[in-house]
UniProtKB/TrEMBL annotation:
It comes from Pelagicoccus albus. It catalyses: thymidine + ATP = dTMP + ADP + H(+). The gene is tdk. Homotetramer. Pfam families: TK. PANTHER family: THYMIDINE KINASE, THYMIDINE KINASE, CYTOSOLIC. GO terms for molecular function: ATP binding; thymidine kinase activity; zinc ion binding. The keyword Transferase applies. PROSITE patterns: TK_CELLULAR_TYPE (PS00603). Keywords: ATP-binding, Cytoplasm, DNA synthesis, Kinase, Metal-binding, Nucleotide-binding, Transferase, Zinc. This is Thymidine kinase. GO terms for biological process: DNA biosynthetic process; thymidine metabolic process. Zn(2+) binds at residues 145, 147, 182, 185.
């Protein structure tokens, strides 16, 4: 029986690198993978998953109206698929997570989802919340805070380098907007030292 996996971390832990390496490992053995990345992520060329260390691969785009189960099912009619992998899985909806569970349960194809657990305010993303609730297996990919502790949180910064505490949950960016911190240093920066 195939499983739904959730690999989560803060920013800069190597989630996309892990996804691309996993896909390479499958393909090296002659096995097919289907990769997905969110349409909303416009940091790179659309339809590409790109890691900070320069690895990249083509990927299918998903948005709120995408039916991941139906897409994978149709793809299986054309050729075998041995694993589905989703980058930036925090942008999945509750329905997407349900569909990915169906891919594992009904189509017997393992699904590996990689994403952030929380946003810049320490709140869970919808996709991450339901992956934490419904995945068969979830694993943390470790990132490091500047202090050397495990980074579990993300802070959004403005152009002047100041912490942003309000705004839309989704604002696409990389190292130009987000910094990973341990919980202690997240709280100091987000809430202030004297909270």
């Amino acid at each position: 029986m195939s499983k739904l996996y959730f690999y989560y971390s803060s920013m800069n832990a190597g989630k996309s690198t892990n996804l691309l390496q996993s896909s390479f490992n499958y393909r090296e053995r002659g096995l097919n993978t289907i990769l997905y990345t969110p349409e909303v992520d416009d940091r790179h060329e659309r339809g590409k998953i790109r890691s900070r260390i320069g690895l990249e691969s083509d990927a299918n785009l998903f948005n709120e109206s995408t039916n991941l189960f139906e897409e994978v099912k149709l793809s299986l009619e054309k050729q075998a698929c041995h694993c589905v992998m989703v980058d930036e899985a925090q942008f999945l909806t509750k329905q997407h997570v349900f569909q990915l569970g169906e891919v594992a349960d009904r189509l017997d194809v393992p699904v590996l989802a990689f994403g952030l657990r929380t946003d810049f305010q320490g709140e869970p993303f919808e996709g991450s919340k339901y992956l934490m609730a419904w995945a068969d297996d979830f694993r943390e990919i470790k990132a490091i805070c500047y202090c050397g502790r495990k980074a579990t949180m993300v802070v959004r910064m403005n152009e002047a380098g100041q912490v942003v505490t309000e705004g839309a949950q989704i604002e696409i960016g990389g190292n130009d907007k987000y910094v990973s911190f341990c919980r202690k240093h997240f709280k100091e920066r987000f809430y202030g030292e004297n909270r």
